[in-house]
What does this fold into?
Amino acid sequence: MVHRVLEIGPGDQPRHDVGGVELSDGDEYIALDPNPSEFDFPIWRTLKEKFGSKVRMILGSREAIPENLGVFDEVVMLGSHGYPDKDLVEIDRVLATDGVLKFGVMSFGKDSFLEEWSPELEKRGYVLVNEVESVYVGTSSIGLNWDLKPVEDPKPEPYTVLTFKKG
It folds into this structure.
């Protein structure tokens, strides 16, 4: 059985919630980013070499995902959050019935994220099914931290992955 994953805005750290991209037979991973330079990082060459056509990088926006209706089993947004009312229209369109939607948020911002996104998620039939505390160690792809200051020695920060099931 094919399991198709769409990650929106992965930058230079695809699937950092699970330590990177790992694919079984039949699995596919598609990365969506509006910035073509994000796909210039060495990690993308490594993934293409390792998995071949099972990994695709496509240019596009979360407000206009260039894929067909209901083709993904999982949509992942680990740090690229936009506007719930606009983003969920497209996510609903491309996520299969009973699909999974994962958000990654810095733990200090989890409550405000849920306050902003929960009404729209609930309205569309999404249910929170899992919440995993983790640690994020890294910087943005441009070598700056979240305050846009250069990072010399990145420190681990509490990070939460919220998993919603589409009902």
About this structure: Residues 110-123 form the longest helix (14 residues). The chain is about 20% helix and 35% strand. Helices lie at 42-51, 84-94, 110-123. The two ends are 21 Å apart (CA to CA).
